[in-house]
Amino acid sequence: MYITVNEVKLTVKMEDNSSAQALKSLLEKGDITVDMKDYAGFEKVGFLPQSLPRNDSQINTQAGDIILYNGNQFVIYYGTNSWSLTRLGKIQNVTPAQLRQLLGDGNVTATLSLH
């Protein structure tokens, strides 16, 4: 999967779970645009067009983690957190500092795609 933010295309290695598979199936129908807001100084969060199956477990997030929250919220972590969440994937080949700079302090629009 790919996430494009501010014209930068990021590669995501997807998890092997029903949540990630459901997102992939949704993306096979077309790209998804997610308007994302900053939350708590460690993540960007936005709503998906529909809920996905949850596979929540207590995890410690790291910068680059792609998370499903409450079944319908898409989250990109640029910091750390510990909570009961579903991991969808991990952004590849970007440092935490690069990710933080790309996402910035305000709202961003992310485009999710398979190509």
Structure, explained:
Residues 3-112 form the Cyclophilin-like domain. This is Cyclophilin-like domain-containing protein. By secondary structure, the protein is an alpha+beta fold. It has a single domain, classed as Cyclophilin, CATH 2.40.100. The protein is 16% helix and 49% strand. It is built from two helices and nine strands, in the order E-E-H-E-E-E-E-E-E-H-E. The chain has helices spanning 18-27, 96-103; strands at residues 2-5, 8-14, 32-39, 43-47, 57-61, 65-69, 73-77, 81-91, 108-113. An eight-stranded antiparallel β-barrel has the order 1-2-8-6-7-4-3-9. Strand 6 (65-69) and strand 7 (73-77) form a beta hairpin. The longest helix has 10 residues, at 18-27. It is globular, with a radius of gyration of 13 Å.
